[in-house]
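Friendly challenge for the regulars: who can give me the structure tokens for this chain first? No prize, just bragging rights.
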Amino acid sequence: MGFSVEGVEGIGEITAGADLAAIIAGAASLEDGDILVVTSKIVSKAEGRIVEASDREAAITAETVRVVATREYDGGVTRIVENRQGIVGAAAGVDASNSPDGTVLLLPVDPDGSARALATGLRELTGRRVGVILSDTLGRPWREGQTDIAIGAAGVHVFDDLRGQVDASGKALAVTMPCVADEIAGAGELVKGKSAGVPVAVVRGLGRYVGDLDLPGARAIQRPSDRDLFRLGADEAYDEGYRAGFDEAQAEGGER
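First reply, four minutes later:
Bragging rights claimed.
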């Protein structure tokens, strides 16, 4: 078993209104079963998701659904939030890297919808049954550094659900469900890089994960809040517990 990952050169700078499917189809030689890992920033550029850098903090606020944690540092405050796409990360995904001077990029409004439109266009233009993953870079709790994850997906099984099967020793697998979409996104980042000007990678040899365009997208990867054991940062969880305890004590005192 094996697979290959190759960066697609010749994409060029993307501007609002660009036909990404046509640009990628013209730059890549695709085969059935290929999975394209597309940096979400070029999708944001094509969709016009650009704001002035001076409006960055306001943009973060507008994109925020829930604040998870905040930390002060010299020169400002880092905000870890859940954004409208359901992704928990720093600054709601608002980013100045690989953005025109004086601007910042917002994530696509509907990453799964963007991936579906791109996969549909590529299948029509090339006649190939391909999948698409939109990737973005995030940090991880408890671990230094960052990695790319899938924030949008179409025509790809985002999980390899092994629950109910057995391992090599014959033991039943009860919870094993690798998130292959994130694994593929990370593999794509190894050849795209941050400064090489290669925003698209083709992953070949994993056609078993390519499927219909109505498969669940990357939104299915987000863990529901009622099952999230790390819903808040440590300080925020402490403050919330303190306030709840204080309110309960006040209520009990008022009843006496």
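The chain is about 30% helix and 25% strand. The two ends are 71 Å apart (CA to CA). Your move, everyone else.
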